[in-house]
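Q: Can I see a sequence and its folded structure?
A: Here is a first one.
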Amino acid sequence: MHSVEIRNLDLSFGGLGVLKNLNLDIREGEFLVLLGSSGCGKSTLLNCIAGLLEVTNGQIFINGRNVTWAEPSERGIGMVFQSYALYPQMTVEGNLSFGLRNARMPKAEIEKRVTRAAEILQIEPLLKRKPAALSGGQRQRVAIGRALVRDVDVFLFDEPLSNLDAKLRADLRVELKQLHSRLGNTMIYVTHDQIEAMTLADRIAIMRGGVIEQLTSPDEIYNRPVNKYVADFVGSPSMNFMEGVIDGGIFRVGEARIPLDRYRASGRGDMSGPAWIGVRPEHVVTGDAAEGAAYAAEVPVELVEPMGSDTLVWTTFEGSRFRLRMDGQSQVRKGDRMRIGLALEQSSLFDSASEVRL
């Protein structure tokens, strides 16, 4: 069963189309992440689902009910914003119960819901504090709790962790995943942080220019990106690319002749013409492993970035900047020369003109 359905959705501001004939089905209990760069339309789409923006064309259904023109309060959703938006003069308990009191819910029911939300989010000791006495992570928990007390089927999150430092983001990311596992509610989450997307999502919708480029599991998006944009956007550091020509099962770039017999989609025997080859940094092998790769070459080490658990090495390969990921204990130094190989079994090929995956 679909919890949220979006049909032929358009949104324009004046003559500018922000969302363009967008269709999306979100399954009941799914954690869906809308991922993309700034201005791609992900927060705009979330605001349309929430009823904070009026659509130009199309329809929105929540649990089978057409809510396209319904007020936000009538849609059965709970929303968590990027800013905490807590009332500074109220205690945590007051912030959690404010919406319920405005809706004239019975006092016993309000207390029950506030207590349950506080237990789930582990903020019971904070109920009598005001927001000024809370840390950033605690404030964000309260903001999530304010949505939680509404007891709705669909939760919307608009970059809720972006104001937090790196450690708090990692901690709350785990808590959000555990929260979804406990509640089983449908959650739609907007972010530009691909780590959040990859770790939280059941499915990811990659957006660009008001349309969805690819909608599938994190594993599929990472390993089989539908086009060069998705391949470049997902991954840190991003995929290495070289532009060349496919001819007779060989990828020609500069002086290199790279055989494609190990390329995992090599069943496409008709592949030919200008193309991009993409190899992720962790799929560039070194040392003895390079000699067993489909193609190997000696390259200069231009920059070394120690990152603790691994080391990122920058080099140049056939005129293109290339990055490879090595073990954190690697002793490679700037100015060295090293042998690298390309693991084509895990690479991607894209048409030069359309940039679509071959």
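Q: Show me another, different protein.
A: A second, unrelated one:
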Amino acid sequence: MSHTQQDYFSQACENNKAPILEQLLPIFANSRNVLEIGSGTGQHAVYFAKHFPHLSWQTSDRPVYHRGIHHWLTAQPSNNLRSPLLLDVTEPWPLTQKVDAIFTANTLHIMSKAMVEAFFHGVGQHLTIQGNLCIYGPFNQQGHYSSDSNRQFDVHLKNNNPSSGIKALEWIERLANQQGLKLKIKENMPANNLFLHFKKENESFKNQ
């Protein structure tokens, strides 16, 4: 069965790519190697790579998404785009060297708590000192949903997978701190999402 670009299309990616780029531009201005965790359709990768010609944008995801990522990389090639790595956050990450930037969008609410813990452990292992971690997605704060739509979305997530769900920002920040990461930016974004920028200030002091 043949596939078209529309088969690997996310409207959410189209809606949020420009606002996310606005946040990323100053943060990744001096980065050299960005690892994108959970590249999904590949739309973010091809869009962002064109705006950061000075860096290498490494896509990654589970195998089920690789066909779509390859499709977008072929349709909109850039010299600085890298074919997707097979990366499961709960398994050893297939990196040969550390990276100075990691980006992920709309992934942590899909993951279980154990997977989010594994994600931060991997970030702690593979991000260089002074490296940047940028996360986009919905989060709860002080025990509350940021909107009624996020509350409904959380119910939908848990109906599909009881292990998934919107995570507490305070818990995310604790996991980051355990890996030597400090929250530098928390920006309100469209559709009741947050953009989080962490900087790795020292090596992790806790092995998870």
